[in-house]
Specification:
- The protein is of the alpha/beta class and about 270 residues long.
- It is about 35% helix and about 15% strand.
- It is built from eight helices and nine strands.
- It has helices at about 5-20, 40-60, 85-90, 110-115, 140-145, 160-170, 220-225, 250-265; strands at about 70, 90-95, 100, 120-125, 130, 150, 185-190, 205-210, 230-235.
- The chain has a three-stranded parallel sheet with strand order 8-7-9. A two-stranded antiparallel ribbon has the order 1-2.
- Helix 2 packs antiparallel against helix 6 (about 160-170), helix 6 (about 160-170) packs parallel to helix 7 and helix 7 packs parallel to helix 8.
- It starts with 6 loop residues before the first helix and ends with a helix.
């Protein structure tokens, strides 16, 4: 889906998709940053890269479970446009992570996910880990911290993010025949979705992979981009983050990826 705005347009598209019987959280939306300043050729190349990456990500969407959908009541602290003011009064729904009991190791004493949650939203029960929809901010830090792949947040799964990175980094010809090559971005930036709100258009040659929180960053995402020969950067939040990025997991991910790349360079 292509939309002029990110939050309000996405909410409208999801509402229409739900009415049509389509999982509304499986829609990948290309916002206005899909087209950037620069020459016409660069704009076309970037649009193809972004749409291809979002298409691959959407195809990797695993589907949501009914107990992951929670009601989000409107809050007065939200910043909205005049056009979206009335929409603020409309209750919204969002997804929270869910633990697969068959994979969860909480019964064996594992507490990695609970320690990673900045909101204290995870509780260990006899049936495994439960996520509080009221307290959960959707940062997905617990998903990255889980050593057993038991926690999953549709829309931000490892496979979806890997497909987006692959779509941005690969080089394909446009138009199916003798079209222009998409070229390669000069830099791939991992950034927090909440912290990047209102940043505006990106410089030419820069592509961004947004995460619900920088604590969702995994070494595999960095290594996937590095395997394609792309320089990688991590962009911190400006003026604090609504999802309270602590950068702990992001620093570990960057340090581990550097160690792997350094070891690979020595071996070659």
């Amino acid at each position: 889906m292509v939309a002029c705005g990110r939050d309000e347009a996405t909410a409208t598209l999801r509402r229409l998709a739900g009415a049509a019987g389509v999982d509304p959280y499986g829609i990948a939306v290309a916002g206005p940053d899909t087209w950037q300043a620069g020459g016409e050729g660069e704009r076309r190349a970037r649009a193809r890269r972004r749409l291809r990456a979002l298409g691959r990500r959407a195809l990797a969407y695993p589907g949501s479970h009914h107990d992951q959908v929670v009601l989000r009541l409107p809050g007065l602290e939200e910043s909205v446009s005049r056009r979206g003011f009335l929409g603020l009064l409309r209750p919204r729904h969002r997804l929270v992570p869910r633990a697969d009991p068959a994979r969860c190791a909480a019964a064996r004493g594992c507490r990695f996910c609970r320690g990673a949650c900045p909101e204290g939203a995870l509780t260990v029960t006899a049936d495994g880990v439960k996520v509080s929809g009221v307290r959960c901010s959707g940062c997905a830090a617990c998903v990255a911290a889980c050593r057993f792949g038991a926690l999953e947040l549709p829309g931000w799964t490892r496979r979806e993010l890997m497909e987006e990175v692959a779509g941005l980094s690969c080089r394909e010809a446009g138009g199916g025949g003798g079209g222009e090559p998409d070229g390669r971005p000069a830099l791939l930036v991992f950034a927090c979705e909440a912290g990047c709100a209102g940043v505006g258009r990106l410089p030419a040659g820069v592509e961004t992979v947004l995460l619900p929180c920088l604590d969702r960053l995994e070494p595999g995402l960095i290594l996937r981009a590095a395997a394609e020969g792309l320089p990688v950067a991590v962009r911190g939040c400006r003026g604090g983050c609504a999802r309270r990025c602590r950068l702990t997991a992001a620093r570990r991910a960057v340090a581990f990826a550097r160690q792997v790349l350094a070891a690979a360079a020595r071996d070659t």
